[in-house]
Fold this sequence. Notes:
Bound molecules: ligand L5K734KM
CATH superfamily of the largest domain: Zn peptidases
GO molecular function: metal ion binding; N-acetyldiaminopimelate deacetylase activity
Enzyme class: hydrolase
Order of helices and strands: HHEEEHEHHEEEEEHEEEHEEEHEHEH
Largest sheet: 8 strands, mixed
CATH class of the largest domain: Alpha Beta
Shape: elongated
Mean pLDDT: 97
Strand content: 25-35%
Number of strands: 17
CATH architecture of the largest domain: 3-Layer(aba) Sandwich
GO biological process, one term: diaminopimelate biosynthetic process
Organism: Halobacillus halophilus (strain ATCC 35676 / DSM 2266 / JCM 20832 / KCTC 3685 / LMG 17431 / NBRC 102448 / NCIMB 2269) (Sporosarcina halophila)
Amino acid sequence: MELEKLIEVRRNLHQIPELGFQEEKTQTFLLDYIKQLPQEALTIETWRTGIFVKVDGKRGEKTIGYRADIDGLPLNEETGLDFRSVHQGRMHACGHDLHMTIALGVLTRLASDPADHHVVFLFQPAEEGPGGAEPMLQADFLKQHKPDTIFGLHIAPELPVGSVSTKPGLLFANTSELFIDFKGVGGHAAFPHMAKDMVVAGSSFVTHLQQIVARRVDPLDSAVITIGKMEAGTVQNIIAQEARLEGTIRTLTPESMDQVKSDIEKLAKGFEISNDCHISIHYGSNYYQVFNDTEAVQSFKHTVDSSSYEFKDASMAMTGEDFGYMLKEIPGFMFWLGVESEAGLHQSALNPKEEAMLVGVNLVEAHMRGL
Ligand SMILES: CC(=O)N[C@@H](CCC[C@H](N)C(=O)O)C(=O)O
């Protein structure tokens, strides 16, 4: 598939972002596309809203896995593009429209000219949450066609088109979603002493959370606690009976994640006493760190160095990716693909340069053929 077709496919997918495990239209679009390819070497199987496609290799001594995530985010798009999302409040703001298109581009080439090895494409739902990688690993299809190695990419708005970046070892953090509910006693705004104000408790809790990062985590280690959403109260002159915080925790090791969670729980116990309220904590989905296999990264660097594209050494990032669960079971790697966008990941104006998709297709295909 060449650039013009990649752009057409990407723009179609960009218009129909859907949240995790609701990717019905996306799945239909992908299946319709895949079914019009030469079918001789293909085995196609759906898994929930995702899809597996195996391309039989010419020799088939090994099986290579390639993963693309397919869900969008709950965000209103503000790019002003002609092909912007037609789903109100939903946007492909993390590049999964490009991830899918690149996978389709490689699949298109392999369907008419297979690689030596078998290749299994995993179109995976729900990366942004609640997490599709861990359950997808349990699918019978993967038990029958278990990859010997697996890889995938993520767009990088800050990198130039024509460059890619990765590193051996830890690439992305351990993550956990965080939901905290406060229950106190509402009342008249004029009589705070007769109520238990959950706006004060909740907002104070947000600032105290940062003390865990500053004072409980080893300064030579790292952690992030971000509260992205806060809800409380009903109107300006009623003291709020309830508050809710929604956020995410990021750490460099699974052990630090346990430590941070335990510190948050201790903080909540203290707040329950000092604010005379009830606090409940839920963690939602947790993602295991993305840990790249050293040999796999070296081999990919060799692929890139043999091409006209540029390899840059990456630093660790506090982003999360449920692809970490796949890398825990199957050696492989993830890499960043430069797409040059002023607006970053998870921003409503994200606008990747589409020509980067051809770089992705060329490198992924070259790497599969070279393994
Ligand atoms: C690459 C990327 O941006 N991934 C997301 C993964 C989200 C995990 C989960 N929903 C959470 O917020 O903890 C990220 O936010 O890093």
